[in-house]
Specification:
Mean pLDDT: 95
Low-confidence stretches: none
Order of helices and strands: EHEEHEEHEEEEEHEEEEEEH
Number of strands: 16
Shape: elongated
Number of domains: 2
Number of helices: 5
Strand content: 35-45%
CATH topology of the largest domain: Tumour Suppressor Smad4
CATH superfamily of the largest domain: Probable inorganic polyphosphate/atp-NAD kinase, domain 2
CATH architecture of the largest domain: Sandwich
Radius of gyration: 20 Å
Largest sheet: 11 strands, antiparallel
Helix content: 10-25%
Bound molecules: nicotinamide-adenine-dinucleotide
Distance between the termini: 34 Å
C-alpha cells in the first residue's frame, strides 16, 4: 500500500513523521506523495484540513487518518502514544472506510459565469470587507429571504462542531447527507428580517446567494480565505464526493463530540 504524510512541520510532528515512515517502510509499505492510498496527517485539525485539500483531486482513491501532536483534535484523533499500535494496524489490518459528506460551493463571477467549484470539509464562510453583506437567498430556485449581516457559514456535518457550533448551529451526525446554513450577526429590526435560525438542507437542495449591494467577498473554505470580485452568485449544496476516513477502531461521532466538548472518557 502507498501512503503519504502531511505534517504540521513543528519539531514534534516532524519527529513523529520520520518514525511513521521508518516503521511503515519496515513493513514494506511505500511512501508516495503523488498517489497515496492512505494519507496520515500529523499535527492538529488544521493539518488535517491541509491534507484534505492537498489530495482533494483524488478523494475516491484516498483514505485519511489524523494523529494529533497538540490537543485532541476532531479529525486528528489518534495520540502519539498510540503510534506503534496504529502502525501495526495500518500494516497488518485492512481498514474499514467511513465516508462523510462534503460541501460544494460554486462561485460565479462576471467573466467566469460557469463559476469556480470548491469543496469544503468543514465549511465555507462568506463575508465582505465592505460593511454588511446583503444577499438574496434562494432555496431550490425560490426566494427565501434577504439577508443582511456579517456573513453566512455553510457547514458540513463534520464541520458542524467547528465554526458552525460557535455560531449556535446544531451538531449534525455525519451519516446525514446535509449542509447547514448559519447566520453571522444578522440585522433584524422593523425594516430587515431574516429567519434567525440555522437551516439544514438535505442532499439535492441548493441554496443560492445573490449579492445585493456588495461586489467583493471574502470566501473562506475551511482554513483558507480568498477574495472574489464581481460575484454574481454563490451556489451551495451537498457535494457528490465524500471524504473517506480509514477506521482502525470504533470511535463513534457522539463519543468524539463528548470527548471534545463535554468531558474526557470515563473509561
Ligand atoms: P485554528 O487554528 O483557528 O483552529 C480552530 C479550532 O477549530 C481548533 O481548535 C481546531 O481543532 C478546531 N476545529 C477544526 N475543525 C473542527 C471540527 N470539524 N470540529 C471541531 N473542532 C474543529 O484554525 P485551523 O486549525 O486552521 O482550522 C480552521 C477551522 O477553524 C475552520 O474550518 C473553522 O471551522 C474554524 N474556525 C472556528 C471559529 C470559531 O469557532 N469561532 C472561527 C474561525 C475558524
Amino acid at each position: 500500500m502507498k501512503f503519504s504524510i502531511v505534517s504540521r512541520g513543528d519539531e514534534r510532528s516532524q519527529n513523529l513523521t520520520e518514525s511513521i515512515i521508518a516503521y511503515l517502510e519496515g513493513f514494506s509499505l511505500i511512501y508516495d506523495e503523488k498517489e497515496p492510498e492512505l494519507v496520515i496527517s500529523v499535527g492538529g485539525d488544521g493539518t488535517f484540513l491541509e491534507a484534505f485539500h492537498r489530495y482533494v483531486h483524488r478523494l475516491s482513491e484516498t483514505a485519511f487518518i489524523g494523529i494529533h501532536t497538540g490537543h485532541l483534535g476532531f479529525y486528528a484523533d489518534w495520540t502519539p502514544d498510540e503510534l506503534e499500535k496504529l502502525v501495526i494496524e495500518i500494516a497488518k489490518t485492512p481498514y474499514q472506510i467511513v465516508e462523510y459528506p462534503l460541501l460544494e460551493v460554486i462561485i460565479c463571477q462576471r467573466g467566469n459565469e460557469e463559476g469556480e467549484r470548491v469543496l469544503a470539509l468543514n465549511e465555507a464562510t462568506i463575508k465582505t470587507a465592505e460593511g454588511s453583506v446583503v444577499f438574496d437567498i434562494d432555496i431550490n430556485g425560490e426566494h427565501f429571504e434577504t439577508f443582511r449581516g456579517d456573513g453566512l457559514c455553510i457547514s458540513t456535518p463534520t464541520g458542524s462542531t467547528a465554526y458552525n457550533k460557535a455560531l449556535g448551529g446544531a451538531i449534525i451526525h455525519p451519516s446525514l447527507d446535509a449542509i447547514q446554513v448559519t447566520e453571522m450577526a444578522s440585522i433584524n429590526n422593523r425594516v430587515f428580517r431574516t429567519i434567525g435560525s440555522p437551516l439544514i438542507l438535505p442532499k439535492h437542495h441548493t441554496c443560492v446567494l445573490k449579492p445585493g449591494i456588495n461586489s467583493s467577498f471574502l470566501i473562506a473554505r475551511d482554513h483558507s480565505t480568498d477574495t472574489y470580485q464581481d460575484v454574481i452568485s454563490i451556489q451551495c449544496r451537498v457535494a457528490k464526493e465524500k471524504i473517506r476516513f480509514a477506521r482502525y477502531r470504533p470511535l463513534t461521532f457522539w463519543n468524539r463530540v463528548k470527548e471534545s466538548f463535554v468531558s474526557a472518557s470515563d473509561k
